[in-house]
Amino acid sequence: MNMLKTWGTPLLLVIVYLVSDVCFGALVGSVVALALGLIEFIRLRIREKRTDKFLLWTTFLFCLPGVLEFCTEGSDWSILQPVVVEVVLGILFGVFAFSRISPVDGLPVGLQKRFQFSAPQLNIVRKRFKVLFYIVIGHAFLASLLLLLVPGKVADFVANTLIYILVVGYFLVLFLSSFLQMRKFKGEEWLPVVDAQGKVIGRAPRSVCHSGSKLLHPVVHLHIINKQGDIFLQKRSHSKKFLPGKWDTAVGGHISVHETVETALKREAWEELGISQLKVQFLASYIWESEREKELVFVFLCQYYDCIHIDNPEVEEGRFWNRQEICQKIDSGLFTPNFIHEYRLFFKLADEN
């Protein structure tokens, strides 16, 4: 229902234009589209105090054919009407492809908050628009030459049918490429992609998240301290590709797709340290970025747990470290950069006090 409400007016413009254009011609269709667009524009300004850019663009594009038909009626230039509309559409693609304006700005306001892209995702979207820009502008140039120099069936085919073949063919290539990638990552763990507030906006294979793509994905970290205030650390296995043999946060791991933060925390605590019962306190969340990845880290503190029993090939050993020992060796290269960051963020001030 919300989606219908959001897209309702733009879709209605399309339907009204197509029906009016087929039944009464482009001029009548454009007049009807203009009237509907203006009514909706005024309604949004009065009731919601906003301007819908997508509505303005849609109304303008649907009025253009009627204006061209009126201005070129009876002249040789009337045959270029579809080409001119295509050029306008190509310019719109070019704006999204080559400027800093986000394609999201062209969506209805109700959808803009739902579509949020990271920098790598936005680059991919811009590449798609660049290809569409070259297809549309190239086709418009070819069609205009044929319509003006050698009008006939071939020119009509190029002007009216070929563009659909090219665009559909391009999207088929994208679909096939996406399908092959899905097969490639079929047996791999998929991670949620989130915004800075932790809202899920997509998903991606684990290897892609760790490939330098900087897709923001959520993880959990658990710090365990005993009654003396010592901090438990785990030593990463030497078989791990990333930071082998380094001492790290007691528990750390990714949040899987369709998994809550709490569920992931309990699962990781069990898998890495054999803890089945624990009481935790949420400390904070922050964004951690390295050369290979970008994570939204949810940090928890635990003082009460049933037992620690390490039976995980990814964890070489584990023990409690007192604060003085950590401070003395914090710059020795024994610890992971992520742990050092969190120690200074959550524990160093307490030590100084």
UniProtKB/TrEMBL annotation:
Residue ranges constituting the Nudix hydrolase domain according to the UniProt record? 215-349
Keywords of the record, alphabetical order, are: Hydrolase, Membrane, Transmembrane, Transmembrane helix
**Transmembrane segments annotated in the record for this chain:** 12-42, 54-71, 77-98, 131-150, 162-180
Q: Which InterPro entries match?
A: NUDIX_hydrolase-like_dom_sf, NUDIX_hydrolase_CS, NUDIX_hydrolase_dom
Q: Which SUPFAM superfamilies match?
A: Nudix
Mind listing the GO molecular function terms for this protein? hydrolase activity
**Protein's UniProt name:** NUDIX domain-containing protein
This protein's species is Candidatus Odoribacter faecigallinarum
